[in-house]
Amino acid sequence: MSRIAVYPGTFDPITIGHADIVRRASTLFDTLIVALISQGSNKKVMFSSDKRKRMIELEIQRMDLSNVVVMIFDGLLVNFAKSNNASVIIRGLRAVSDFDYEFQMSWINSRMIPEIETIFLPASKEAQLVSSSMVKEIAKLGGNIDAFVSPEVRDMLNDFFIKSVADAL
Ligand code: COA
Question: Which residue has the higher pLDDT, 40 or 97?
Fold first, then answer.
């Protein structure tokens, strides 16, 4: 039986930390679905779901991963996983501070659909504390984000802020 896993998130934008989890998770399953939550989530997003999807696709291409696809979802994650025949939800853990939220989310998800297991992958040393909000803030203030995102994502972020400044003039 083909093993399918889902790696969900907002990915606003995808960072080297997310990309690292995608790469490692892709080696563990036949198919990995990167599940991008659309704008309907609680978080205020900077990039549209189509732009976030494009960034993830560029990362997948760059890493040459043939068993990874990106899908946009709305609603409950477990329902999305079930409707795509996924038996596992992947989440990355960066630090102890992630644990409470992640543990609660996995508990709630398993109460809703017990057959779907959550597997945590520890963040790699290089991406231990990176976050999408931090990257956006640095880019907005004109800082160098090369250590946190790929060149393609960096260019898209820089274009976004150059355009915002131009629009404000
Ligand atoms: N590397 C780098 N950054 C990481 C990371 C890693 N390995 N793991 C998490 N992060 C960061 C992200 O950059 C993000 O940073 P930000 O808050 O500064 O933007 C933060 O950690 C968490 O983001 P993410 O992993 O994208 O998850 P999320 O909390 O935005 O999304 C969902 C959570 C989408 C999985 C969850 O809201 C969900 O399942 N929603 C659907 C509704 C549902 O089913 N609800 C019931 C379940 S409780």
Answer: 97
